[in-house]
Amino acid sequence: MEIIKELPEVFEEFAQQRRNSFLTVKELKDRGIPVVGAYCTYFPRELALAMGAVPVGLCSTSDETIPVAEKDLPKNLCPLIKSSYGFAVTNKCPFFYFSDLVVGETTCDGKKKMYELMGEIKDVFLMELPNSQSPASLELWKGEVIRLKEYMEKKFEVEITEEKVREAVRVLNEERRALTRLSEVMKLDPAPITGYDLFKVLYGSQFKFDHTVIPGETDKLTDKILAEYKEGKMQEKKPRIILTGCPVGGATEKVIRAIEDNGGIIVAYENCTGAKQFDRLVDEDASDIYAALAERYLAIGCSVMSPNPNRYELLGRLIDEYHADGVVDMELQACHTYNIETTKIRRFVTEEKKISYLNLETDYSQADAGQLATRIAAFIEML
Amino acid sequence: MYFTGIDIGSTSAKTIVLGEDGGILYKSVRPTGWSSVDTAEEIRRTLLDKGFDAEKEPCTATGYGRISVPYANKTVTEITCHAKGAVHLFDQQDMLVIDIGGQDTKIIRIEHGQVRDFMMNDKCSAGTGRFLEVMANSMSMRPDQMCEIAEEGSGSGVSISSMCTVFAESEVIGLIGKGEKQENIAYAVVDSIISRVASQCSRLFSPDVPVFLTGGLCECDYIRRDLGRRLGSTIRSCPDARYAGAIGAALMARRLK
Description:
The complex is a heterodimer of chains A (383) and B (257). Chain A has 383 residues and is of the alpha/beta class. In chain A, 49% of the residues lie in helices and 11% in strands. Chain A has a four-stranded parallel β-sheet with strand order 2-1-3-4, sandwiched between helices. In chain A, helix 15 links the parallel strand 7 and strand 8 (356-362). The longest helix of chain A is centred in the middle third of the chain and has 22 residues, at 135-156. Chain B contains eight helices and ten strands. Chain B has helices spanning 36-49, 78-90, 129-138, 143-150, 165-177, 182-201, 221-231, 244-255, and strands at residues 2-8, 12-19, 24-31, 59-62, 74-75, 95-100, 105-111, 114-121, 211-214, 235-236. Chain B is globular, with a radius of gyration of 19 Å. The interface between A and B is small, with 9 and 13 residues.
């Protein structure tokens, strides 16, 4: 099949920054490299690497395209879903535009129904993500992983061999190890860098196309941070916060900044921008590599899972290992699963872990910046 | 030695000067108006006239307009200040504070004299002083007058169905047009506020914890009693409760020395 190489018509209307992003991805496409876009951490990226394609994250983080999205989608819907759909239909996102295949999963109600509409403008492969992490669910998920692999082989006219998948597992495991090691610098007290600095690196790594260079670059950065720490370069001692909940980035960076501008420091991210991306490796030595892939990915503790024991396990582990003083649980508006989970997470954090908890609900607008700052400042004053 | 606390709320600005022993040396309340910066400056000058130099001596600012007080040594959120002020005023270490403000409502759970948890409604003016103000206006009354007659209207069965202040105002005008009695409408308005505040308290309320009312409506006896009845608890207050934020701020200023 012919992969997408031409720029969209609306390209001429874009500002410089956006044009540059388009041109960067186009450069890949001109070299004949396919792009596979995905929205969730459940997508087994190894499959894209195994066929020589570049996997990209498509979760949109700006309210710019929400008005357009609201023509087709209800207003009372998660801003991430509206924003992502909006960027898709307007051709404003270079990664979506140049994606030859988009992989979606039946994660939450909003996403799975939105994909029905998105499927009208793009080849969207919908993986049937189970609702739980039981043995039967694992069988289903493994079947879906294989079904996706077969679809990709047919569409791109390539063969995805087991050897290539194993190699991809090794590459991405190295990346996971490197990102974990970087995140672990925040175990130090006082912290060496700000949570915002860490976030920028983690978020940025999702847009690097060559996964073989990420571990080396990341390790170099980690070594530099540790060396400078020994020489005394560090942050002030501040209340240590773990940010959990819905994905954070772009418009929702306001929460990160509000926490760090009001006296706190984010030491860990229990969300898919952070720990959920790289916690736990795929078993490289498993005899059934597809089962190993399915197992590692299905274990992600997103609130779409019911029950969701792995979120408590990861959050609890981060609270202990990073010596957190408080947890800020950020939800996007209309996110039922995370919003309902706040009740038990609050209990877990305050009664079992015996630290303070704050729940915030927000959207992609900047209108609530003052209100967020007041709540967050009051929370940090409590610690 | 004295300490100044300034609470610039969305509707009114409260000033408190505390002596070293924690006694109130000066208190005042004025409308915040459209410029918090101008109001802060007027407050500074008025204090100077009364013999208090907020620039030289420790001063803390709180409230929505806290960043507009250039001479404050420190800014602290109104949550923390209301809590500290309430602990001081009511001499309790464990309590629930309900602050019905001009444009927001805060519920603060205090344990061992510290903020343990809180809930803020600052996204919607239903259940705040503004709701009462708008409705009282449409009946050509002052809010406190409305509160006084509201009790007489209980049992009338009149209610306001809209949560939104703007739509509720239309309902009130409709009721006036139908010739509904003033006290019945007043009752419905206050009932609406109390329902909103009570539901906001649901997560933080527990029957064995004393409840105190602060904020501009603290002297409205009917609201205090009826909200208490709704929650199943006796709510206490005192005339200086509207200054809880400013008192807390002054206490924070005392810590600076």
